[in-house]
Amino acid sequence: MKNAINWFEIPVKNFEKAKAFYEIVLGCKMEVMEMEEMGVIMAIFPCETERGGIGGSIMCAPDYEPTRKGALVYLNAGVDLAVPLSRVENAGGEIIMPKTSLGPNGSMAVFIDVEGNRVAFHSVA
Fold first, then answer.
1. What pTM did the predictor assign?
2. Distance CA 111, CA 121 (A)
3. What are the residue boundaries of the structural domains of the chain, listed by start?
4. Rounded average pLDDT over 74-93
5. Distances, alpha carbon 69 to alpha carbons 19, 44, 50, in Å
6. How far are the Cα atoms of 82, 96, 98, 99, 103 from residue 31, in angstroms, in the given order?
7. Which of 17, 41, 60, 122 could make a disulfide contact with 74, Cβ separation 3.0–4.6 Å?
């Protein structure tokens, strides 16, 4: 097994608001995909799955509930997470753990997104 994870979904209720938040914070455009028969709409984070990268999305679906509890997803914040972290509060989120050194393993930070999900960033610096 190359990766323990191959996909993740961050639950949202207000799809457009959540999509705008992540596009602002990450400085990217997210691809939208709808599965009308299942009542699902998702926006996919940029990833290089053809090179073994891990993909994921925000997902608005029946029974999906945003939460501050449960598994913590670490988003790739690039070279220095200070850049996307600096956009969190202006985009409507809340920083609950500032940039914290992990020594030779880079840095991390934790925030609450506009839907109330606890999410983290990781970077090499």
1. 0.93
2. 8
3. 7-123
4. 96
5. 21, 22, 32
6. 25, 28, 29, 28, 34
7. 122
Instruction: Of 45-49, 79-83, 104-108, give the lowest mean pLDDT range.
Output: 45-49
What is the C-alpha to C-alpha distance for residues 93 and 12, in angstroms, rounded to an integer?
Answer: 14
Average pLDDT over residues 7-33: 97
41/14 Cα distance (integer angstroms): 11
The bridge status of strand 31-35 relative to strand 7-11 is unpaired
Q: Which CATH class is domain 7-123?
A: alpha beta
Asked whether 85 and 75 are in contact (CB, 8 A), the reply is no
Structure token pair of residue 95: 């920083």
Distance between CA atoms of residues 48 and 39, nearest Å: 27
Cα of first residue to Cα of last residue in the chain, in angstroms, is 27
Residue 7, token pair as written in the block: 């996909």
What are the φ and ψ backbone dihedral angles of 15, each rounded to 5 degrees?
A: -60, -50
pLDDT of residue 1: 67
Identify the burial level of 78 via C-beta atoms within 10 angstroms of its C-beta, where 0-12 means exposed, 13-18 middle and 19 or more buried. Answer: middle
Residue 54 tokens read as 């891990």
